[in-house]
Amino acid sequence: MSVTGEGSGTIGSRSRAVNEVVDLVSKLIRFDTSNTGDPATTKGERECAQWVAERLHEVGYTTEYVESGAPGRGNVFARLKGADPNRGALLMHGHLDVVPAEAADWSVHPFSGAVRDGYVWGRGAIDMKDMVGMMLAVARQFKVEGTVPPRDIVFAFLADEEAGGTWGSQWLADNRPELFDGITEAVGEVGGFSLTVPRPDGTERRLYLVETAEKGLGWMRLRAKARAGHGSFLHEDNAVTILADAVARLGKHTFPLVLSDSVAEFLAAVSEETGLRFDPHSPDIEGQLAKLGTIARIIGATLRDTANPTMLRAGYKANVIPQTAEAVVDCRVVPGRRAAFEREVDELIGPDVEREWITALDSYETTFDGDLVEAMNAAILANDPRGRTVPYMLSGGTDAKAFARLGIRCFGFAPLRLPPDLDFTALFHGVDERVPVDALEFGTRVLEHFLLHS
Questions:
Q1: What is this structure's pTM?
Q2: Strand, helix or coil at 33?
Q3: How would you class 332 by CB atoms within 10 Å of its CB: exposed for 0-12, middle for 13-18, buried for 19 or more?
């Protein structure tokens, strides 16, 4: 289900939220909240969370600051009361942590929050301090203006998403579930951004991708054990060789095509708009998807499971054959495929290699319908009458995985109207991450409309 509109709508006068969103995002980026995956070296979340709380206090919110199981893992919650207390509340969530960045690789310092050439630059600009800034701007505006939304809105600013939420959303769901009492739906990353596609009549359509599903996320450790020995001897029982063979088989393996409802609806919508045809059963489906441009990176990865080796560890001296060798594999699993995926992995690695999940988070999928989706449609069309919302599956994972465990229906909707030539997907965790100023202002207007009608 989606709504489309034609024509060129006009944008009204600039709101308080639109006026301050760029400054808020820039200041958020200046907090170095790099998440290394190691609690001992991850930093900045507490300071950033406290700054967010101060911005909310300034306009009259009562906030709750929570450290999620470890010192410094800061989270902030604020509730805006709605007109109907009997309706389920809406959770708007964004994470404050970012992946690390090497300053020497960047055109600007990654934690400068520089505003230049029509962009806000820095680590987190799209993942996801843009959405955090838009949420904060709209929350502040609603409080200052005395706006009462249709139902309660809970704004949550969270830690540790970039390491799977172990010390963030997952910990909160396990240890502080009362923070989410009464919440029935949630909105966070990664969705709402535009994809411009050509139409057969020579015009273009902006598709706004709403995340309705995401693959399961798992980091798996493989371990081979064998007989240690001298590096100069003949040695057929070598843990490094056993592991290397297993890793190579797994890394080169192509898992079967699986077409989920979200992906099928996305492909059908794109076909309808562009006239392109996609055969999900074709061995060249990835080649067909390449016609969509850079978004094919994400869409192609949602057609099948993936298992990418990312880390290797073995040995302690050049002339010693080690007893143990280990590898870590990044696994992303299509909804409904967990058991089949594990069986396939076991066949590939063989009986001489042990495996264990370091982290294993379930996949998630919901339907593209209901009042909340209607509100997303309406908000997009109010600001881009040539837009169309469509569902899609994210190849990665978000904090939605934790909230889905609590029975909350989750979507990704962080709206941005992007230039057609911007390689948006390459900016996630990439060098020179940046977000267009116009896109931030557009997204803030969309969120204003959305939250007033959700």
A1: 0.92
A2: coil
A3: buried
